[in-house]
Amino acid sequence: MAEFDRKYWAFIxxxxxxxDAIQDLPGLLHERGLKKxxxxxxxxxxxxxxxxxxxxxxxxxxxxxxxxxKCKANSPIEIVEECARxxxxxxxxxxxxxxxxSSMDTAKLASVLVTNNQDIHDFIGKDKIKKPGLFKVLIxxxxxxxxxxxxxxxxxxxxxxxxxxxxxxxxxxxxxIIDPVLTLNLPxxxxxxxxxxxxxxxxxxxxxxKSNTLSDMFAEKGIELVFKSxxxxxxxxxxxxxxxxxxxxxxxxxxxxxxxxxAGIVHSMNYTLTAKSHVSHGTALAxxxxxxxxxNLIACSEKYARLARxxxxxxxxxxxTQAAFKFIKAVxxxxxxxxxxxxxxEIGFTEEDIPxxxxxLFKNQLYGMENNPRDPSREDFIKIFKAxx
Length: 389
Known about the structure:
Elements: E1 15-17, H1 25-31, E2 37-42, H2 49-60, E3 66-71, H3 77-89, E4 94-99, H4 101-115, E5 125-126, E6 135-140, E7 153-156, E8 163-167, E9 175-178, H5 188-207, H6 213-236, H7 241-260, H8 265-277, H9 281-310, H10 320-337, H11 354-364, H12 366-371, H13 378-387
Parallel strand pairs: 1-9, 2-3, 2-4, 4-6, 5-8, 6-9
Antiparallel strand pairs: 7-8
């Protein structure tokens, strides 16, 4: 289908980007008439210099605030509900999600849970939230999820343990602050995990049949930045602010391209691995991404070939398919250099787990299949899972 013959969304929230941008937080709140925010973060980030900088900036401006630091990976429902109770009980007029994707998603979901008379389980799905939430400020301290630029939020359903998406314009950020200084002390493993998340967003959106001029532009720049700077940020990021800046931008661009286009089956399959093995989002993506790229190759060899050239691979005289395989190898090499697992068996996901994974995919992840450049059958998923064992 021609691009001009279909519609797509572009979304970038109001965002301040730059070194020490966190210092502008009090003024930004004051301009919007906000007087009592709730900081939403986790037990690790609350002890970091990044968080201290954010709190100090409010203290110097004599702004009242409350801190919730119990966020956990993948936003469990009970944590979101507790956060919302505190925001409501303390009469907070805004939430500041600061940390990784789970902290920002918890802030998003808590903000709408305060203002909507709904059970949180009813949020799951698309456009189920009825009213806007509290004003949301999102400040990433990692470089990968892109939650600061996304509409959806991910939560863990306490009824079955699976991660599930909430799609709503009411969970989008009202104001984002991207300050690379906040990511300087990011641990190596988190740097790798979130960096691969950003890369996967870009590759999936770029190869989706829904890709378009804007998504391609965002994706190409994001991929270029990841291959330029992720290894450097991983090796000694505390000494390379430019690499941290590049990765902060790559994360945001990954979500921008994702919004304009769509995620495919790498993200769909990822949920099955994280639910079973409780590994990070990025770890599961690193295992699955090369295998899904090989499956999708028949539909997007020209695009993968273009990416090979973009990152500086020598593909002179190569066919599109040959160049595309070289890009897939470059992705594998990057994951290897970041010491990411390459097989599902390394994280406790075995052949016996495939049937349950398939049931989940066909019950909950049809949108990923719809967005993918190649239609996958049940047998195709089995082959991909087995290849990744």
